Amino acid sequence: MPRQARNWSLGATYHIMMRGNRKSQIFHEPKDYQNYLNLLQRSSRNAPFLLHSHCLMNNHIHLLLQTLKHTPTNIFRPVNTCYAMYYNHKYNAVGHLFQGRFKAKLVDTTSYLLGVSKYIHLNPVEANLVKKPEHYPWSSYPAFYQQKYDPLVHTEKVLSFFPDSPASSYNEFILRKLTYQEQEEAATYLRP
Questions:
Q1: I need a labelling partner for 17 at 20 to 30 A (CA). Which of 27, 36, 84, 94 fits?
Q2: Where are the alpha helices (DSSP H) in the chain?
Q3: Rounded to 5 degrees, what are φ and ψ at 124?
Q4: Domain region containing 141
């Protein structure tokens, strides 16, 4: 039976999640992470999009992405195919690298947008990889916290909700303890 077609809305924002097959690692060393980001940047030239936040973990990926004229499938098919070929060649592996199709949840409210961005940037902290989100090198957080230029990341939309000193206000938002409602919303981010 064929897979059910997905409904995409061009111009919409999605929380994109991809996981390694059987939850296995998809990144082993810095060059792997950088290669994936390079492929994503190359894809942005062929199928433009706005990347609002991202975090590459060793066995999964989170992206907060706004489509423009192409669907997420058009964006990620070449990226994931090229990365899987690179990975299989480098690590003498065979078969699927990613577990099924990527997940994409429509982000349709401001609170959901900000909650997903917070969830993405706190992912390495929650996984006990770092104590502070700014210490994790494979996230878009430095583009927000230090206003460090990242050619892939468009911080304007997220920071527009923090008009008074955006970088420090966003950092305060990230470090503020989640409310019960935010915890409930965050729990739904990974559910199908």
A1: 94
A2: 30-46, 72-90, 110-126, 141-145, 156-159, 166-175, 180-187
A3: -65, -30
A4: 13-187
What angle (nearest 5°) sits at the alpha carbon of residue 170, between those of residues 164 and 172? Answer: 100
C-beta separation of 162 from 184 below 8 A: no
How many other C-beta atoms can be found within 10 angstroms of the C-beta atom of residue 16?
Answer: 19
CATH code, 51 = 3.30.70.1290
| CA 162 – CA 30 distance, rounded (Å) | 32
Q: What gap in Å lies between CA 81 and CA 77, rounded to an integer?
A: 6
Q: Which residues of the chain have pLDDT under 50?
A: 190-192
Could you tell me if residue 51 is inside a domain?
A: yes
Q: Global pTM?
A: 0.88
* Residue 129 near residue 141, CB atoms below 8 Å: no
Position 10: which residue type? L
